[in-house]
Design brief:
82% helix, globular, mainly alpha
Length: 248
């Protein structure tokens, strides 16, 4: 890639990192950008993971410093999520994902309805025991499976799981979300690296922009609170559903 393409990619990373941290769906920006710049889809899927990992690390560190991260709960949920991510990443190197995208697009339309009709649950959370049940762990295995397979939109589904299953409000859920994404992206990225599906120069440029976006997204989340996150989430879910259902 030439200089202007790499500069564009850094800007895309900043925007996607911010969106990913506040809500999710940033990969629906970065993946088309990488493909538009001439990268094969399978290579773009792997290259994108580097930026996702970096922005999630930046956001996790900032949430932790601000005392807004339930680290213990996140680490418990990370175990099944990592197991699912490894399986999903392996599967993504073998299978086409177009039909899967359509299913996820429909699921996002359903989630849009849930966001609209149950706003208090998203803003205030619920009283759910911190100790996870097998069913809750299985749910996060499934979320990790999708995250390893495609990544795009996984932050939205993680927020839904952390609010509706774990009972967190949107700010608390965001802290755990970025920890989970960082954790389960590492083994997935290793698998893509082993399959030679990461182009490291654009990956590092994208990561640089994503790091700044992760920091900015955390600041916006902590400063503006659950109401802001819910509005951004509604917009991201609607845009993501349209992208997945209509396709490239």
């Amino acid at each position: 890639m030439d200089g202007p393409s790499l500069a564009l990619l850094a800007g895309v990373g900043l925007v996607a990192g911010t969106v990913n941290t506040v809500a999710g769906g940033g990969s629906l920006i970065t993946l088309p950008a990488l493909i538009l710049l001439g990268m094969p889809a399978s290579m773009a899927n792997g290259t994108n993971r580097v930026g996702v990992m970096v922005q999630s690390l930046a956001a996790t560190v900032r949430f932790q410093r601000e005392g807004a991260l339930e680290t213990r709960r996140g680490l418990v949920l990370l175990v099944p999520a990592c197991a699912g991510s490894i399986l999903g990443a392996w599967g993504s190197t073998l299978l086409p994902d177009l039909a899967f995208q359509r299913v996820i697009g429909v699921a996002m339309i359903v989630m849009l309805a849930v966001l609209w009709v149950r706003p208090k649950r998203w803003l205030e959370g619920a009283d759910v025991p911190a100790r996870p049940t097998p069913a809750r762990l299985l749910a996060f295995f499934g979320l990790g499976l999708y995250g390893g397979f495609l990544q795009a939109g996984v932050g939205v589904f993680l927020l839904a799981g952390l609010v509706l299953i774990e009972g967190l409000d949107l700010v608390g859920a965001n802290g755990v979300k970025v920890l989970l994404v960082f954790g389960f992206t590492l083994p997935a990225m290793a698998l893509f690296w082993a399959a030679d599906l990461i182009d490291w120069v654009p990956a590092m440029v994208l990561a640089a922009g994503s790091w700044v976006g992760g920091w900015l997204g955390t600041r916006l989340t902590l400063s503006w609170g659950p109401g802001f996150v819910r509005v951004v989430l509604l917009v991201v879910v609607l845009a993501s559903a349209g992208k997945l259902l209509v396709g490239p």
